[in-house]
Amino acid sequence: MTDTGHASTVGEATAPNAPPMVRIRDVHKRFGALEVLKGIDLDVRQGEVVCIIGASGSGKTTLLRCINFLEPYDSGRIYVDGELVGYHERGGRLVPAREKEIARVRAETAMVFQQFNLFPHMTALNNVAFGPIKVRGVAKDAARERARELLARVGLSDKADAYPAQLSGGQQQRVAIARALAMEPKVMLFDEVTSALDPELVGEVLAVMEDLAASHGVTMIVVTHEMMFAREAADRVVFMDGGVIVEAGPPDEVLGAPRSDRLRAFLRRFTTSRGS
Amino acid sequence: MFGLNWDLIWRNREEFLWGLVLGLQMALIGLAIGCVIGLLVAFARTSRHRWLSAPAAAYVEFVRNLPLLLILFFLYFGVPMWANSALPRDVADLLILDGENTVIAGLAIYGGAYLAEIFRAGILSVGRAFVEAGRSLGLSGVQIARYVTLPIMFRTVLPSLGNTFISLFKDTSLAMAIAVPELTFVTRKFVTDTFQFIQAWTVAAVLYIVTAYAIAAVLRFLERRIRWAV
Ligand SMILES: Nc1ncnc2c1ncn2[C@@H]1O[C@H](COP(=O)(O)OP(=O)(O)O)[C@@H](O)[C@H]1O
Ligand SMILES: [Mg+2]
After folding, report:
1. Looking at CA atoms only, how far is residue B47 from chain A in angstroms?
2. Does residue B154 fall inside a structural domain?
3. What's the distance, CA A46 to chain centroid?
4. Order of strands, edge to edge, in the sheet holding A219-223?
5. What's the whole-number mean pLDDT along residues A11-30?
6. Contacts of A119 in chain B (CB under 8 A)
7. ipTM exceeding 0.85, yes/no
8. Which ligand is nearest to the CA of A52?
């Protein structure tokens, strides 16, 4: 359903020449001697859905964590809606921002984790309402009201009072998506959110994400191994390997007509190992 | 029973019971203050900053290697002597405690060191995952400690907390050394007055055991009422 002409035909996504919601410039990151990100450049427009694919260990998680600043990057720049993430720039150098400023930028980039990471001591409803109450200062009643709407949106109206331990993995992940949505973030980051799920639970989570992607109200960066999802929901697919972006483009091109040997090898391994 | 005369002890039952209540009361207040000390020390010990973690570690190591009785003597006899000679009157008065408050302070200091270790293990056991979830929502470090780490930690340490409470409760018997009329002191006084060793110490033992069991039962009940799991 999507192709290159899409941004101009969908009302909510911004025009291609508007400043990007996420701007990543020459980002490097190393863990000790291991350089994990070797100069990443990527722009993501408002409302755009970008899927990142790549073999395990290629740096996908690290890139998401740098955007959310759970991991500080060593050099380069990451801007979210024009604001430099985690640092100030002084005379061309990066100076760490204060904790408060980092927290404020983090609130704009909601992360959905592979292992859900719901707060175990809060009901589904409170998990969703908590961030808006404590971080955004929303009144409790209003936040709970909104949380109910969001739980309904992910199909969990009847689970508002359940604790995470009482929910299936798929349900927990849908609560986690609602929790991220509740922050009304400028960008949502998804890190292999279906990888920890039993196969029969993957569909319900992907359905929620497809619905989100189709609305184009929220900018999404999705690390995934679900090629069907990438093909159908993404505006752009990015292939990472060894800490660099090897190919990026519309799903049809990247997945249908890979140019590099590395991507061809990855896709081949993928289709044979998944048998689809 | 056992061919022994239990009348005398029955007539003095109120003294025994008040002794028990006093012990429980001191243990409970000591535990409460000890929890506050333990929490502060535990967070300090897990801090990245050495100026916080080093003194916290020193406190734990120092106190844990002292007998409680010695701490009580130090607070009851040593501190007043030093305070009277070295400090202005009004400050010294604050530091000179009566017997009961000495025991409470001693239990708080002593229990605090043990609780600090329990809480520290609890804090470390709270998965990085929950902390990161809080961070990525934009919560501050203090908010994460208060709303995420603390409640999850308390859930995991609840059984150890119960054990510590029972230990502190039994340790209140040391208060007899500074003449606080808790159960052990009352019992010994009764024995000295009446020579009814067996009756008195049996009653004291039964009261300690029943109370400790009751504490454990209440805690298990509380634990079961918590519907969430980590
Ligand atoms: N905290 C860390 N410390 C050291 N090495 C790490 C850390 N996190 C990730 N790595 C390493 O960085 C590389 C990239 O990891 P990651 O970003 O998780 O890749 P992906 O998500 O694509 O599988 C891997 O080799 C991994 O072992
Ligand atoms: Mg990963």
Report:
1. 16
2. yes
3. 13
4. A109-112, A187-191, A219-223, A49-53, A236-241, A244-249
5. 80
6. 130, 133-134, 148, 152
7. yes
8. 1
pLDDT for B12-51, tens place per residue?
A: 999 999 999 999 999 999 999 999 999 999 999 988 899 9
On whether residue B81 sits in a domain, the answer given is yes
Q: Which two tokens stand for residue A174?
A: 């849908």
- A125 vs chain B: nearest CA distance in angstroms? 14
Q: What's the angle, vertex CA A114, arms to CA A108 and CA A115, rounded to 5? A: 105
Query: Using the beta-carbon criterion (under 8 Å), do A131 and B139 form an inter-chain contact?
Result: yes
Query: Residue B227: what pLDDT?
Result: 85
**Tally of domains within chain B:** 1
| B68 part of a folded domain | yes
Average pLDDT over residues B149-158: 92
pLDDT in tens, A59-85: 999 999 999 999 999 999 999 999 999
> Which domain range does residue B54 map to?
25-180
Testing ligand 1's pocket by substitution, the residue of A35, A40, A61, A246 carrying the most ligand atoms inside 8 A of its CB is A61
CATH code, domain carrying B70: 1.10.3720.10
* pTM for the model: 0.85
The DSSP bridge pattern shows strands A109-112 and A187-191 to be: parallel
- Nearest atom within ligand 1 for CA of residue A65: 17
